[in-house]
Amino acid sequence: MKIFKNKLFRIRILILLFLLQMTGSLLAQTAMINVSSRNKTSLNGQWQVILDPAGAGDWKQVWQEKKPQIKTDFVEYSFDGGPYLKVPGDFNSQLCELTYLEGTVWYKKQFENSLQPGKRLFLHFGAVNYIADVYLNGEKIGSHEGGFTPFQFEITNKVKTGTNTIVVKVNNHRKGNGIPGFGYDWFNYGGITRDVDLIETNTSYIEDYFIQMKKGSLNKVLGWVQLNGAQTAQNIKIKIPELNLVCKARTDEKGHAKVEFSSRFKLWSPETPKLYKVIVECENDVVTDSIGFRSIEVKGTKVLLNGKPIFLKAVNIHEENPYKKARAYSIDDARILLNAAKELRCNFVRLAHYPHSENMIREAEKMGLMVWNELPVYQHIQFSDSIVTRKLELMLNEMVRRDRNRCGVVVWSLSNETYPGTPNRNEALIDLTKKCKALDSTRLITHVINTQTYKDNSFNVWDPLYQYSDLIAINEYIGWYIPWQGKPSETKWQISLPDKPVFVSEFGGEALYGSNSGPTDEAAYWTEAYQEKIFVNQTEMFSTIPNLCGVCPWLLFDYRSLGRMNQQYQNGYNRKGLLSENGNKKKAWFIMRDFYNKK
User: Fold this and answer.
1) 97, 107, 98: which is closest to 187 by C-alpha?
2) Is 389 in contact with 415 (CB distance < 8 Å)?
């Protein structure tokens, strides 16, 4: 029986691999970088939609847009006569009947094409949550899974002269083997949530590049340029006009060229967020970027920015515009959130729990805010599923590829609150860490853990993933989920790797803004005073943490989360924000601002 089961298992794996190979041609391509510098045509705006909560659209073949041919024909779907949705934007906040939808919406957009010979055309999506099936003129051109990273399809040989039609099936329903899975503590905004563009290139073009400071150096850049479609070697130039710098290189037979140069850079920092105009040229393409240069590393128990110790004064942010109650995506959305972080005196933002929009990353960099970029590997991930590990690698590659030229990004976070006892968790995340280091060894890498034990006013901090992390990142909610067992100033710490810097990545408690009735020393009344006391105690406790390199309260604004069902105080919101969803400062905000002022 055991032999039979093993053979059956192997047969299933072989069938799965065969199916993956058969459908591989329909998987989305990893997107070219720096889309804003490309020859692009925006497809943003109003898209026609069909709402499909029953999931009948596949059976009806909505993408074919069938029309009656004879008198007795009828078609039970139509984009005409239906609603429109704005792209980019989540569908939940645009139509009241979609407020709580986790399911399917079909989008349709038409565009005109007059592609010239010798040109290529790509359909680029900034992000779609969660699964996108994309059709062009009635033909499926591919699919993408993952709600927060970009993808594209080349449509050069599929587009026709004149009017073309794109149909996108968007489904935000959670999957057990998805990333994230069923467990999450934020609002599951679905839809085409970021920009959609047509990008025209020459036959060969600059697909990707990496131009950042060599690890540990303050004056040397070590990077590369990758061309797509190049048939022969090409000359490459990297230009920084402000420094009168020109670096020349030549690609190999695979279109890859290594680049190396030195200069007296004005280094990027929170105090002086200097960015240079950088021009990347090949023989038939030019891309312009704004790039800063800085060094970020760990030496002993310190985090060093440009060779000097820095304390990370951080705050957690979800990608939600609190005033619109919608997914944040625009530059204006980013500025609302980031300006609030700056007012708190932050120099660092943890963008939880997934990669935020490129607008958020670039605006933070301009404003002098260091960025923590995180994969949506949140709690109950099915690491034992072989498909999940493939998805992990894909999402990692898409995140790092998009943002590795953003000097403001200083941390890659690869997981949040996963558990050592989960089957294959350790093996999968250790392997993911190694792959991340291979993609980019210049930044700090971490995993966020909340499995430390607390007894007799003492924390025992350990996890096998800490051995592979540059930071020991701890989520602890003492004072809220766990009561204090002694004086905060007398807290003890037993850290399994005492030679690494410690970062408190989450702490806090909930309060409804304006709630000041009832006992202020009882959590059940959700008072600002109770939350304020948590922050007073936490900031007192911080002085007891060995090797503390930074702290990061959870969270900046109150945000929507359907699991928060106390209708008197939460009403569908996680109330741990230092600011209410209307931007009102809670008492705890002032405690944190004063703490950062002193730092």
Assistant:
1) 98
2) no
- Which one, of 115, 119, 159, 117, lies nearest residue 284 by Cα? 119
CB–CB of 52/105 below 8 Å? yes
308-508+525-558+576-598 placed in CATH 3.90.180.10? no
Say if strands 196-202 and 39-42 run parallel, antiparallel, or are unpaired. Answer: antiparallel
Write down the domain spans for the chain. Answer: 24-201, 214-293, 308-508+525-558+576-598
Which helix H or strand E contains 304, and what residues bound it? Answer: strand 302-305
Distances (CA, A) of 494 to 390, 456, 544: 36, 12, 11
Task: Give CA–CA dist 335/276, Å, rounded.
Answer: 21
Asked if residue 322 has a cis previous peptide bond (ω within 30° of 0), the answer is: no
- Classify strands 276-282 and 235-240 as parallel, antiparallel or unpaired: antiparallel
What six digits make up the tokens of 100?
């709580």
* Beta strand spans in 100-230 (E): 104-113, 119-125, 131-136, 139-145, 151-154, 162-171, 196-202, 205-210, 220-228
Say which CATH architecture domain 24-201 belongs to. Answer: Sandwich (2.60)
Q: What is the pLDDT along the chain (599 residues), one digit of tens a residue?
A: 444 344 444 444 444 443 343 334 478 899 999 999 999 999 999 999 999 999 999 999 999 999 989 999 888 899 999 999 999 999 999 999 999 999 999 999 999 999 899 999 999 999 999 999 999 999 999 999 999 999 999 999 999 999 999 999 999 999 999 999 998 899 999 999 999 999 999 999 999 999 999 999 999 999 999 999 988 999 999 999 999 999 999 999 999 999 999 999 999 999 999 999 999 999 999 999 999 999 999 999 999 999 999 999 999 999 999 999 999 999 999 999 999 999 999 999 999 999 999 999 999 999 999 999 999 999 999 999 999 999 999 999 999 999 999 999 999 999 999 999 999 999 999 999 999 999 999 999 999 999 999 999 999 999 999 999 999 999 999 999 999 999 999 999 999 999 999 999 999 999 999 999 888 889 999 999 999 999 999 999 999 999 999 999 999 999 999 989 888 898 999 999 999 999 999 999 999 999 999 99
Give the tokens for residue 242.
């402000």
> Quick one: residue 456, left, alpha or beta (phi over 0 = left, psi -120 to 50 = alpha)?
left
**Structure-block tokens of residue 255:** 């279109």
The pTM for the full model equals: 0.94
What CATH number is given for 214-293 in this structure?
2.60.40.10
CA distance 368 to 292: 11
Cβ atoms < 10 Å from Cβ of 205: 23
Please report, for residues 43, 84, 125, 135, 161, the alpha-carbon distance to residue 164 in angstroms, rounded to integers and kept in the order given: 12, 18, 17, 11, 8
